Amino acid sequence: EAIRGIMRDKGLVEIWRLIHPQANDFTFRSGSHGTKSQIDFFLIPQSMLEQVSSCDMGVRALMDNAPVDLVIHWGDSHTARGRWCMNVSLLNNLAIREKLAAAIRDYLELNTGLVTSFSTLWEAGKAFLRGKCIEISARKKREDQDAIRVLESEIVTLEKACDELGESEALHLLTEAKFALNTHFSKALIKKQEAKRSIPCIRSKEENVLTELDKIQAEFQEFYSNLYTSESPMDMCRYDRFLGGLDLPSLTSPQKENLGKDVTDEEWQEAIASPASAGLE
Fold it and tell me: Which portions of this protein are annotated as coiled-coil regions (predicted)?
């Protein structure tokens, strides 16, 4: 239960069981005691599922424990998945937006006219802006960590000083410090919850485990396409017979003409002068 709790908190997956959900193999088997268990396993982050090629149990040849083989492919898919992604929450901070805007202006002033093509200027600008964002993110992370340490130290100090300060004053200061600290933790929790909402793997209709992003998207597309596709062929005669038997209300020609007319001044004045209908405001 403790391991399951760690897996939930850290977003880890027991990869062998995920790949072999129906298998009944064990990594440890004792013939003398007649016991068997799975005490050897790999826990990996959900973000690494796409890179896993296979995970299998070996042969118990020399010991009672079977080796567990995990093969990870660090190919093009890993490179594409691991590309830097901008932390868009930085743009919610006005000071950071102004700093990035100033950096872009400085870059254009220094480099416009020094390169032969705008494409080169643009590509180099993206690399420059990426470095700026990484720098700002790292600095902001250090500042947040420093602020958390200061708040934790302040809370400990206030709790020790409760006897010296008045009870109401100490409680007020403690409440403020804990609220500020919980604000930092809430932001981290929200980010963690967003990561949990991602779908790292699914099982296809052929019972295969899919971890690659493009295959997951294709499987969802196929599922919903089949879900919303009618099983019976399109028969316009059946549609006409069904709709023809319904008494659907329709507008007369004079009603259509009235709907298309412009609203007159008298109608505006009458609507303004009429009292509002009773109801919840």
Answer: 141-168
| pLDDT, greater one: 148 or 188 | 148
35-37/28-30 β-pairing: antiparallel
Query: What DSSP character marks residue 198?
Result: S
Distance CA 107, CA 103 (A): 6
Backbone angles phi, psi at 126, to 5 degrees: -65, -40
User: In whole angstroms, how far apart are CA 97 and each of 47, 94, 121, 125, 126?
Assistant: 30, 5, 21, 16, 16
Distance of alpha carbon 90 from alpha carbon 133, whole angstroms: 8
Tokens of 149: 């340490």
Q: Do 181 and 148 meet the contact criterion of CB atoms below 8 Å apart?
A: yes
Q: With contact defined as beta carbons under 8 Å apart, do 66 and 75 qualify?
A: no
* pLDDT, position 211: 79
Cβ–Cβ contacts within 10 Å for residue 140, how many?
A: 15
Q: What are the phi and psi torsion angles at 69 (to 5°)? A: -100, 125
C-alpha to C-alpha distance for 281 and 279, rounded to whole angstroms: 6
Q: pLDDT for 150-174, tens place per residue?
A: 877 777 776 666 656 655 666 666 6
pLDDT in tens, 34-55: 676 777 778 888 778 888 888 8
Residue 280 pLDDT class (50, 70, 90 cuts): very low
Query: Tokens at residue 31, please?
Result: 């013939």
